[in-house]
Design a protein that fits this description.
Blueprint lengths: L5 E10 L2 E9 L11 E6 L10 E10 L3 H11 L3 E9 L9 H9 L2 E10 L10 E8 L4 E7 L22 E3 L2 E9 L2 E9 L6 H15 L8 E6 L8 H8 L3 E2 L16 E6 L2 E8 L11 E7 L11
Parallel strand pairs: 4-5, 11-12
Antiparallel strand pairs: 1-2, 1-3, 3-6, 4-16, 5-7, 6-7, 6-9, 8-10, 10-11, 12-14, 13-14, 15-16
Helix pairs in contact: 3-4
């Protein structure tokens, strides 16, 4: 039976660069949290038992500007979990649409949207516009929270001397990871929806992924963890990838040389840790709905306590 649609916001509290969601869900009519420190949650999925496996799609959808093509790609690939970056909410350039909520309603999914930036040239004071990350799934979403990196590029701080024109992309905020949990079989899996800095150095991106891995330590060594998203690995060898491998994570698409961006670069990745088996991973290069191509992989609990090699 389809659950009635619902939407709420989760109050978050920023502590030393970390924004942690409290347990209380607030209705939009409640007292307003800081605009960037909220998670917008919606539920359009029917009740489902824990999944034995999932098809996960990770994709930078380029704001959702080509929304029909994004919808077509989701319809074709049929993922149970969507990990999306560059998602607009109320931006003039995408028709003032709430892209995450629209996709969730269209496919009957639950979703969480985290605000990465306020786009100062895309909204108004009365109706602000945001840009961020969204995780959508047919499964119940548990314990959503926001990790706002303590290390950020200064280029996203709005300069008073720049006019508020779209060309200058004046933004207020910073790069984030959106953390959610789902049940896969009898196991709770933590998913990090990550967008690392595109404007800074390799060292800045390395510092940000270090924060993700340090945060994942809270789950212990046996808890399955997925890190997926746009890691902006513009050069190789990348210290970001080396650090993830050294930290016990495995590439869910091992040996895949295909670029994930139309520029020919491999910017997008899915990594797993713990007892998870990854099969059928691929870059969906035939999908032209963004400047990035989606990544898709089947993920299931591994019968081996130590976890099977990804892609086996």
């Amino acid at each position: 039976m389809r659950l009635p649609p619902k939407e709420s916001v989760v109050r978050t509290t920023a502590v030393a660069g970390l924004a942690v969601a409290t347990a209380a869900l607030l209705s939009p009519a409640d007292s307003k949290p800081a605009p960037l420190d909220v998670l917008v949650c919606g539920g359009f999925a029917a009740e489902t038992p824990p999944a034995a496996s999932i098809r996960l799609m990770s994709w930078n959808i380029e704001r959702g500007a080509r929304l029909r093509a994004v919808v077509s790609a989701i319809s074709r690939e049929k993922p149970e979990v969507c990990v999306f970056q560059e998602v607009d909410c109320n931006d003039a350039r995408t028709g003032h649409r709430d892209i995450a909520a629209l996709l969730a309603r269209r496919f009957g999914l639950n979703y969480v949207f985290a605000r990465e930036f306020q786009e100062l040239s895309q909204g108004t004071r009365e109706s602000p516009a945001y840009h961020g990350q969204a995780t959508l799934t047919a499964l119940p979403i548990r314990s959503p929270r926001l990790l706002r990196f303590s290390r950020q590029s200064s280029r996203w701080l709005p300069r008073w001397y720049l006019p508020n024109w779209p060309f200058f992309q004046r933004r207020l905020g910073g790069r984030i990871a959106l953390v959610t949990e789902i049940h896969l079989g009898n196991t709770s899996v933590a998913i990090y929806n990550v967008h690392l800095e595109s404007q800074g150095s390799r060292e800045l991106r390395l510092a940000q992924i270090r924060e993700v891995v340090a945060d994942a330590l809270r789950y212990g060594p046996k808890r399955p963890v997925i890190i997926a998203g746009d890691l902006n690995t513009k050069s190789f060898p990348s210290p970001v990838i080396s650090f993830l491998l050294e930290s016990g994570f495995r590439d869910a698409l091992p040996g895949s040389p295909r670029p994930t961006h139309r520029s020919g670069r491999k910017l997008d990745w899915i990594f797993v840790r713990g007892p998870l088996e990854c099969t059928g991973g691929r870059v969906c290069a035939g999908i032209d709905a963004s400047d990035h191509y989606p990544l898709a992989v089947e993920i299931a609990p591994s019968p081996s306590p130590g976890g099977l090699a990804a892609g086996r």
